[in-house]
Amino acid sequence: MRIVLMGAPGSGKGTQAKKMVATFGIPQISTGDLLRAAMAAQTDLGKQVESAMNAGQLVPDDLVLGLIRDRLQEPDAQKGFILDGFPRNVAQAETLDTMLEELGAPLDQAIQIDVPFEELKQRLTGRVSCGDCGAVFNSHTFPPQREGVCDLCGGELVHRADDTEKTVINRLKVYEEQTQPLIEYYARRDLLKHVNGTRDIALIFDEIRQLLGKH
Length: 215
Prior knowledge:
Blueprint: E1 2-7, H1 13-24, E2 28-30, H2 31-41, H3 44-54, H4 61-72, E3 81-84, H5 90-102, E4 109-114, H6 117-125, E5 127-130, E6 136-138, E7 157-159, H7 165-188, E8 192-196, H8 201-211
Parallel strand pairs: 1-3, 1-4, 2-3, 4-8
Antiparallel strand pairs: 5-6, 5-7
Helix pairs in contact: 2-3, 2-4, 6-7
């Protein structure tokens, strides 16, 4: 089961990825996590990543692919994997496909979690999280019992600086511009499956299981 999982900020992609990991026993491979781990371990690739980031540059695709290649060859990824955060564009997807073919591990499916723009905006602009325990609430859709106070531990709820309406709209537009060609690419290759992300978390996961043939 080799999957690329896609979805806009606020689509619930991270929640579904965690459920897939727990249920199917395959790793979620996040490029952000790989980059941080490589820098912390000071591997050769990690030093190159650190150098690029310290210079204020984007990490080159070949370095990211090198990290992914190394990660896919670890024992826990032999039964499959969930790629999260990569590829972000068609050029990366093409290079990824070539690498996976070389490894004898081509993709089985690309899953896109769909949520309308206005609902994503509401989810993101209303999001608040507890500074103590990390619990997440939403002033529009899942408010705490007392405004500004965590239901679970009583900690203070804070609004992320990048969740202002202007910033959220910009993030969503950038995502849409980047991802639409990628959606079309996977559709042409007959790998793309759409999932309605506006429903209950359990219902969304049930649909993902059905798409993957895991009833």
